[in-house]
Amino acid sequence: LFFDKHRHLVIMGGGGSGKSIFAGDKVLQRCSTEEGHTWLVCRKVAKTIRWSCFNQLVGQAREHYPDDIERIYEGDMRITFRNGSQIIFAGLDDVEKLKSIYNITGIWIEEASEISEQDFNQLDIRLRGETKYYKQIILTFNPVSILHWLKRRFFDRVDKKGNALPKKITRKIRTHHSTYLDNRF
């Protein structure tokens, strides 16, 4: 999964499965080795992101990538790298605010089961344009209802009538399901 280049990397797992640590490490690795990234890390509610994703990535960055960090902006929750890459953090309370963010090259949606499919669609269209590196949206979440849009869109791989989706759609998606038993740490 660390080297996976699918547009949508969908990681479902229970508590302790390591999905958030993995996603954070992949984002940090790409930002430290690939110049010019603007990664957006988001959750549904803005006030929850500081105590989850931001603090996690700051800790991981300080531990594993200290020489690559240019600055950590505590106030507006942003991490910049010496190579010009950056990670910005935002809540999806007001998706309209995301329209002003320029040149997003990657997105990590933590607790993706909290957002609506409409929120996801807005994020997906923000990831556009030509870049030197592949663009990817990483979705991490705990298992949810079989009626949730995430299951239908990413795991079922069939349309509403039960017909298999075209390969051009499914080849953009990589799914993974883990439990705490899969986490060697």
Please explain how this structure is put together.
- The chain has helices at residues 19-33, 46-64, 117-126, 149-156, 167-170; strands at 8-13, 38-43, 69-73, 78-81, 86-91, 106-110, 136-141, 173-178.
- The chain has 185 residues and is of the alpha/beta class.
- It has an eight-stranded mixed sheet with strand order 3-4-5-2-6-7-1-8, covered by helices on one side.
- Strand 4 and strand 5 form a beta hairpin.
Strand and helix layout:
Elements: E1 8-13, H1 19-33, E2 38-43, H2 46-64, E3 69-73, E4 78-81, E5 86-91, E6 106-110, H3 117-126, E7 136-141, H4 149-156, H5 167-170, E8 173-178
Parallel strand pairs: 1-7, 1-8, 2-5, 2-6, 6-7
Antiparallel strand pairs: 3-4, 4-5
Helix pairs in contact: 1-2
Features:
185 residues, alpha/beta, eight-stranded mixed beta sheet, 5 helices
In short:
By secondary structure, the chain is an alpha/beta fold.
Distance between the termini: 17 Å
Mean pLDDT: 88
Number of helices: 5
Strands, count: 8
Structural class: alpha/beta
